[in-house]
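Q: My labmate handed me this sequence with no annotations at all. I'd like to see what the chain might look like in three dimensions before we decide whether it's worth expressing. Could you predict it?
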Amino acid sequence: MNKPYKVALVEDHILLRKGLVSMVEGFHDYSVLFEASNGKEMIELLDPGNLPDLVLMDVNMPEMDGFSSTGWLKRNYPDIRILALSMYDTENSIIRMFKAGVRGYIMKYCDPVDLRTAMDALIQKGYYYSELVTGRLIHTINRYDDLDNNDTGNPLSVLNDRELEFLRYACTEMTYKEIACKMYLSPRTIDGYRDSLFDKLRLKTRVGLVTFAIRNGIVNV
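A: Here is what I predict for the chain of 221 residues:
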């Protein structure tokens, strides 16, 4: 019999964490290696000689949140798969967690079957997109296939240098107002760049812009 995949749980709510421990232990082929209440505690508990295969990562935690914890893991142990668990489905949270290094994002109130499906997908394929993220990311990616197959060939060919510069900033945590200051432009001009990209790339959200940038090598994750 194969050894079970080792899972680390990083979640600050004790009752929820204990519930997740019980749930994961009940899944065939999985066992909980350790549990932590935040990223700082996770780092202290990590044993380089006995690393988890998968980390279930809360987004909002004290001391060291999910964004920082995920980034630290990807820098130090890039082979560990990370699944974000969140109560929030905001574009900003999704963008930041995917840019930090997660390869799956699921809501805490999901059905246990969905959690198991997400864990299996990360182990077997290296990524998982829930219906939430599918709606905001994968649908957008499918639109790029049309752009890739149109007469322009390269989807980047429709963008000018300033639009590309704006797109790179849009993939950061900066607000549009902060991007305007960075580019020495007015907020109205920045809104114009955003709307132009939405129109040229047939997108509707900032998540879509980030996905496009990742897909086309404009930014790295």
